Amino acid sequence: MERESINHDDEIDLIDLIKKVWDWKFFILLVVIAGELIFISMYYFAPVLYKSTVPIKIGKIANISLEQYEDLDRHLQISNGGNDNYYLPYGEKAGEYFKGRNIADIVYVTAEKSKDRVTLTATGLDYDETVSSLNSFRTKVIKRHDEIFKKSIKKFENLELDSGNKYNINYTYLITSYNYPTQALGEISTVQTKLGVKFDVNDNDKIAPVFHSGLIKYLILVFISFTFFGVFSAFVLDYAFSEVKKRKVS
C-alpha cells in the first residue's frame, strides 16, 4: 500500500510540473525566442576572425633536425613577417603579450610543435593580411633552414677533408643519408570564426554565408539552454506568485 501511495504521489507531482510548464508556455517561448535573437544579433555583428594554417616539416641532415623548436621559436620572436605582423611565442596569451596594442589592428603568428613538424598559424581580422602574414613567416622559416641545410652539408664535407678520414667515418654516407630539406606540407588552409563558430572560407567571395551548417548546432544549443532557463524561471515565478497569494489570503 505504501509503495502504491508513493507511486501515486510521484504521478501527481509529475502531472503538476507538466501543468505548470503548460501554464507558462508563452513565457518560456518568449525566453527562448529572446535568447535566439540575442545570439543571432551578437553573431551577425561580431567581427570575422580568420585563422590560416600551414604545417612545415622540419628538415634533417644525418638524421639530425636542422633546428630545434625552442631555437626556432626564439628566432621568430625577434623577426617580423611585415608591417603589423607579429609573432606570439609558445605559451603566451595574445591579450597579455600584445598588451597596449589593439589586437584588431594586428595579425599575429604562432608556431606549434608536433613530432617532426611545426604548424604555423596566423590570426587576424583581414583575410588577405592573414594569409600574407602566414606566407611571409613560412617563407622566412624555409629560407632560414635552406641556409642551415647548405651550411651543414658544407660542414660535413670540410670535416671529411680536414680529417683525411683518419677516424674511419664515412662522411659521404652521413651527408647523403637521412637528409631532406624543410618543406611545407600542403597549401595554406584558412577557416573563419564568429563568436567561436568555425566554418570554411568560401573561395568565391572569401566570406561564407551568415547562416550555415556550423551555426545550426549552436542555435540548437542556445535553444536547449534557454528552454531550461525558461522552465526554471517559470517555476521560480510560479512559486513567488503562489507565496504572494498565500500571504494575501492569510
Q: What topology does this entry show?
A:
Blueprint: H1 2-23, H2 25-45, E1 49-57, E2 60-61, E3 64-65, H3 69-77, E4 85-87, H4 94-97, E5 107-114, E6 117-124, H5 127-163, H6 171-176, E7 183-184, E8 189-194, E9 197-200, H7 213-249
Parallel strand pairs: 4-5
Antiparallel strand pairs: 1-6, 1-7, 1-8, 2-3, 5-6, 8-9
Helix pairs in contact: 2-7
Plain-language structure description:
This protein is about 55% helix and about 20% strand. The chain has 2 domains: about 70 residues; about 120 residues, 2-Layer Sandwich (Alpha-Beta Plaits), CATH 3.30.70. Helix 2 runs antiparallel to helix 7. Strand 2 and strand 3 form a beta hairpin. It is built from 7 helices and 9 strands. It is elongated and about 100 Å long. Strands 1, 4, 5, 6, 7, 8 and 9 form a 7-stranded mixed beta sheet that branches. It has a two-stranded antiparallel ribbon with strand order 2-3. With about 250 residues, it is α+β, with helices and mostly antiparallel strands. The mean pLDDT is about 80.
